[in-house]
């Protein structure tokens, strides 16, 4: 066993509890073989959005269930890509975060030039679009990435309204300037599940705002649980990583994705 004294990395998308079971089995087997240093790389982490109690009598799934199990395996490091919540960083031992700079930079360059040089070095690109934060909770991340790419323009922060059952009813987009009209709009967030939040933003813009530019969606983790048919009606392009899954051609639900969605490989 030549690698017994070398660091070992376990890679998993960790989309479900079976993935967690496999991580546990792999870790226990490596420990049994005498491996001392084991690292976990899981770009998308199960339970990331369940970071609080949603109702009386429930639990904090991330803090009370997922993180304690991972911590019990004593990894040297646990690396997560663009985590949804600070709770993860607080509750996961030896946590390492990879931010969303690369996916955003890749998306902006692809939109303008069709190439990915690895860094933003043409400031004139930064004047051609407006960044949109889908809600106040995403502001911290979007302001950070704006600083990283050198963007000094406006950031539109949307707000959500919910009905008495907590269901999203509509979204408000503060559209205050005429100079937004011809600029492309870039919505940035960490996760797209069904996409209702992002679709509602575009619906509002189309109904209440005069806009002639294109609209793009940039998300780190693309779940796309409702496919791309509806999303394709509202966006000129969608960018994500393959942290959650690979979008493969030939599958009915993915055929539209090949036309509208581009993935950056991180797994």
How are the SSEs ordered, and which strands pair?
Blueprint: E1 8-11, H1 17-32, E2 38-41, H2 61-71, E3 77-81, H3 86-91, E4 95-98, H4 101-113, E5 129-133, H5 139-149, E6 155-157, E7 159-162, E8 168-172, E9 184-192, H6 196-208, E10 215-222, E11 237-241, H7 257-260, E12 261-264
Parallel strand pairs: 1-2, 2-3, 3-4, 5-6, 5-9, 9-10, 10-11, 11-12
Antiparallel strand pairs: 7-8
| pLDDT averaged over residues | 85
**Helix proportion range:** 25-40%
Broad structural category: alpha/beta
Q: Ends: how far apart?
A: 26 Å
Strand arrangement across the biggest beta sheet: 6-5-9-10-11-12
Task: Report the sheet-strand fraction.
Answer: 15-25%
What value does the Rg take, in angstroms? Answer: 20 Å
Low-confidence stretches: 115-119, 250-254
Give the number of helices.
7
Shape: globular
Number of strands: 12
- Taken in chain order, the helices and strands follow as EHEHEHEHEHEEEEHEEHE
Descriptors:
single chain; 267 residues; alpha/beta; six-stranded parallel sheet; four-stranded parallel sheet; 7 helices; 28% helix
């Amino acid at each position: 066993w030549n690698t017994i004294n070398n660091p070992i990395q376990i890679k998993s998308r960790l989309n479900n509890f079976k993935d967690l079971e496999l991580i546990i089995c792999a870790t226990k087997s490596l420990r049994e073989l005498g491996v001392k240093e084991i690292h976990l790389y899981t770009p998308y982490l199960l339970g990331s959005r369940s970071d609080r109690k949603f109702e009386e009598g429930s639990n904090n799934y991330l803090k009370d269930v997922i993180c304690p199990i991972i911590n019990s395996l004593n990894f040297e490091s646990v690396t997560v890509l663009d985590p949804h919540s600070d709770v993860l960083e607080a509750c996961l031992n030896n946590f390492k975060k990879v931010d969303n700079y690369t996916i955003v930079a890749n998306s902006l360059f692809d939109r303008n030039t069709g190439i990915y040089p690895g860094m933003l070095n043409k400031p004139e690109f930064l004047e051609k679009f407006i960044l949109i934060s889908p809600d106040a909770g995403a502001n911290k991340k979007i302001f950070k990435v704006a600083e990283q790419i050198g963007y000094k323009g406006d950031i539109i922060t949307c707000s959500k309204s919910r009905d008495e059952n907590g269901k999203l009813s509509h979204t408000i987009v503060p559209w205050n300037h005429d100079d937004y009209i011809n600029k492309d709009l870039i919505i940035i967030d960490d996760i797209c599940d069904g996409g209702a939040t992002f679709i509602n933003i575009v619906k509002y813009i189309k109904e209440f705002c005069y806009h002639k530019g294109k609209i793009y969606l940039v998300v780190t983790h693309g779940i796309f649980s409702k496919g791309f048919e509806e999303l394709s009606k509202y966006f000129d392009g969608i960018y994500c990583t393959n942290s959650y899954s690979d979008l493969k051609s030939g599958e009915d639900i993915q055929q539209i994705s090949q036309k509208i969605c581009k993935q950056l490989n991180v797994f």
